Amino acid sequence: MNFDFSEDQKYLAGEARKFLEAESAIPVVREVLNDDDKAYSEGLWKKIAEMGWLGTAVPEEQGGLGLGMLEMCVLAEEMGRVLAPVPFSSTAYFLTEAVKLAGSDEVKNDILPRVVAGEIIGCYAASEGPGHPDPANLKTTFDGSTVSGTKIPVTDGGIATHAVVLAKEGSGASLVLVDLSGAGVTRKTLSTLDPTRGHAELTFDKTPGVRLGAAGDGASLNDQLMDKVAVLLAFEQLGGASRALEMAKEYALERYAFGRPIAGNQAIKHKLAEMYVKNEVARSNCFYGAWALSTDAPEMPEAAAAARVAASEAFWFASKENIQTHGGMGFTWEVDCHLYYRRAKLLAVQAGGPKVWKEKLVRALEQKNAA
Amino acid sequence: MDFNDTPEEAAFRKEARAFLEKHLKPKGSERASRDRANMLEKAKAWQKTKAENKFAQITWPKEWGGRGGTAMQNVIWGQEESKFDAPTGPFAIGLGMCVPTVIAFGSDEHKERYVQKALMGEEIWCQLFSEPSAGSDVAGLKTRAVKDGDDWVINGQKVWTSGAHYSDYGILLVRTDPKVPKHKGLTMFIVDMKQPGVEVRPIHQASGGREFNEVYFTDVRIPDKDRLGDVGAGWKVALVTLMNERLAVGGSPGPDWAEIMEYARDHGSLSDQAFREKLADWYVAAQGYKLTKFRTQTALSRGQTPGPENSIGKIITANHLQDICNSAIEMQDHFGIINETDRMPGDAIFQQSFMWAPGLRIAGGTDEILKNIIAERVLGLPQDVRVDKDKPFDELKSG
Hints:
Number of strands of chain B: 8
Strand content of chain A: 15-25%
Oligomer: heterodimer
CATH class of the largest domain in chain A: Mainly Alpha
Order of helices and strands of chain B: HHHHHEEEEEEEEHHHHHH
Mean pLDDT of chain B: 91
Shape of chain A: globular
Number of helices of chain A: 11
CATH topology of the largest domain in chain B: Butyryl-CoA Dehydrogenase, subunit A, domain 3
Largest sheet of chain B: 4 strands, mixed
CATH architecture of the largest domain in chain B: Up-down Bundle
Radius of gyration of chain A: 20 Å
Low-confidence stretches of chain B: none
Helix content of chain B: 40-55%
Largest sheet of chain A: 7 strands, mixed
Largest interface: A-B, 48 and 49 residues
Number of strands of chain A: 9
Number of domains of chain B: 3
CATH topology of the largest domain in chain A: Butyryl-CoA Dehydrogenase, subunit A, domain 3
Distance between the termini of chain A: 27 Å
Number of helices of chain B: 11
Low-confidence stretches of chain A: none
CATH class of the largest domain in chain B: Mainly Alpha
CATH superfamily of the largest domain in chain B: Butyryl-CoA Dehydrogenase, subunit A, domain 3
């Protein structure tokens, strides 16, 4: 039994944490929060690219570090802890994994080295309105060479150079890679719950695109892509949830009421203990997701879904109860609680909300049982 | 990350499984396995067989009849034995908690007299700590021991004593000095449960069963040589017992997500959206607990001491058992109130566990106490206010 990260992976996590703390991520997050024209921190993004993180799980022949998905999970958790305001997930999870999953050799050799070099910012464009995007009912179309339609909201859509678009093609759906410098692209910046991550509405009008995988395979490819992304996002959620618990604990220990720290109050202690239980349930499920992701295990659908459901619940609970533990202070702009509260909800509904993933989980369990 | 055994672990697992297959039937393989008649005799026989083959008390040193094995081997043994219809219940407390305390604090004479007989299944032990007004606050107990020559004379009452009705010996925590603060006036003894003055009364539980007992002590004499540890050092001795308890308390028996899913599939509720969401939550929690144990095993197999992550177990499992049973009964609607094993799916497993679950949330530490433990020992938050800490016991209010 070896259900843990290796010493090397733990070392990577420690180094990543040191780096992100030295780059004082919360002030960096606030720069993005307080400036409507800023969709991300260009400075932090540049440094992350220089560190080689964007090539973590990219093969060496395409300029990457050739490490594995476990290393990506480790980095994702650290990025989640500090709410890094950079298009890391859009680029390193959605775009990179879509290209790795279904791109032709030509596409891989074109795109991946540029991702590693920090020249490409990705985004994932699936949603077209309220509810979870259903590949069968998409309005955005792909005719084999161009994409037309509107996607809203698109995380990092305002700054991305390339988009992975889920579009209708014939009677099915396809995943299409679109260079956003091409013709017919209109971008509109959106105000969202979490201003520390930029969002936009993207409209395509006969914009050239390259299909990833075969025509009509989009629904199945998208499912596979979402399983991979779900695990990585779950680690970001886990990082955020862990940090929210730490914040609540630190504050409860230093805040005095009735002559003693509020952390000595059983109501507060039990609240924090419940956060801890949810975080541990999430951590164990995330580990299992990481194992499935790194080994291409047949258990991937239920492992990814369980990680996602557990981490969404943990981050939601920790972020809201962190505000509650801080009392009135927690509801101020100056204290960081709301940043975690915002990010918790963004991550929970990005790539499918808990309801969607619970349904995926039960369906996976049904299939397993029928097999 | 991988879930496979090391070659050494795999070899031990194979050996353990071969031994189990030779002697026991797989769990649930036949209806007779649920027959509880002669349970005590079966348990004693199984314990003897295990001990003779060095599969009893895997981690105990060989000099005490154990295997001298690793903590990881103990985990593997537990995993394998639990797949079989193994009657282990009557020995769990004695061998898991009481006898290790005797080994740690008893005289050579005690160890000679008691350890081997317990290991061979010839004598059964119980643990006499809780009292009617000392449950979560065990150190508030009132049973008195007064020195009389070379003996101590015991008077008082214990409660929730599992298996006292068939036990031969017990470890007994009593108050020897009420003039000092509560933790300082306690002393631990070995008590012969069959001697005059010890009266065991089974408690009729809410579940209908009678596994726990009240035990009354009336002028019971215990020789001073049967003391475990120093006079007044009983709390220290008890902590060793309780530490072993935490290692011993594992998951909760009873139906889990898989069983309610199967029931729902057979009875048309699996298409209900609200039910599907609940099912996902139960799976995630159960899986979270199971995988957390894998993390603990990883630490054990590396020779490390497991971290605090295991402390979440009982909070999750006991609550979910209650919740799952509640949902299953509601799913059965009118029919759900029937608690007859012959008429109900899975031998009324949801009904039986529904009535047992409240006890699980209390036994071995209530949810509230466990949350305190997580808050204080894992997260490092301040202890609850203890107004009784420095006061002599006989000046404390109680009730």
